[in-house]
């Protein structure tokens, strides 16, 4: 292959442009840019596939190896070509270089694995994780979890203990949802010497594995005022009657303004029309932040966002008193509401569209906790995968949708 230098240069340019356009799309939603991105991704895949098929060309092979140490987009394209080639010689070089933590090669490989086919990810990660290098297993855990590669679980758990508990690894365990992870995750949750972030993420992964003891940890930790905002929001979002009652009973005990505000907003996430009576008194609170949070809580349930939450207390109270007097009759007791509409898994699945990567991840994880289903998180295309993801969820959720609509659920069951 004589023109490999030119083709390699094109691939690097396309890989770089891909990221720039994708970042722009999430704010502009420009359809022309979306079409340009999809075409760019197709062209990139074609070029790298041709280069991967020609890695026996000596000069190209030498160039790919030399680029690995550069830590830039060129290095990532080289890695992608090597992985697609499945050349035993080049993959061996890649694995050998992985042993040097300071090279940051593991980070570049992880970035590339996100856009690879599942079987290719499985094949390479088996070899890489077998090196038993903590920076490798940690870096690759995210893509392993999102691709549901349960075959690689033994590299992360031994004797009912997580080998190297990091935020990425315990989150991966939730994505995989393996019941065998419950005991190792419980060990972390119960370890008071462990970092609170790792414990909190382990508790969330317990919920993703269908174990409600994850939510019990959130309640206990909230009682101790550990990391108030995240704890309160999670309790509210996945609440049943018990958790809703718990949050309401916390209100008189909370003196810190920010903690009180977090709790009021989280009560709104429960979607229970009955809790509005507990939010109304805080509409007249002396602190602006508390008034705004109480108003937000009511809005989360009713879907009414016309209140000037940063206005005077009397005006805010008057607005809600008038609005509720006129409209509360349209809401039914015993129905879970989300911004004015009955809670719906189908609606939640549709929110995977037209959003940034981080928001999609959160919504994907939330759907897993609500439904009890574990589906892969597709990262191969910056934009087209959103449609694939939403379609997959819509198909899998359909059998659950009827019985679980408009109610409080976790793991596919009413709570």
Topology, element by element:
Blueprint: H1 4-28, H2 31-52, H3 58-67, H4 73-85, H5 88-98, H6 105-113, H7 118-129, H8 134-146, E1 157-158, E2 161-162, H9 167-176, H10 182-189, H11 196-208, H12 213-223, H13 228-237, H14 241-250, H15 257-269, H16 276-279, H17 288-302, H18 313-327, E3 337-338, E4 341-342, H19 345-350, H20 357-371, H21 384-404, E5 409-410, E6 413-414
Features:
415 residues; mainly alpha; 3 domains; two-stranded antiparallel ribbon; two-stranded antiparallel sheet; 6 strands
Written description of the protein model:
This protein has a two-stranded antiparallel sheet with strand order 1-2. The longest helix has 25 residues, at 4-28. It starts with a helix and ends with a strand. It is elongated and about 80 Å long. Helix 4 (73-85) crosses helix 6 (105-113) and helix 6 runs parallel beside helix 8 (134-146). Helix content is 64%, strand content 3%. By secondary structure, it is mainly alpha-helical. It folds into three domains: 1-113, no CATH class; 227-340, no CATH class; 343-414, no CATH class. The mean pLDDT is 92.
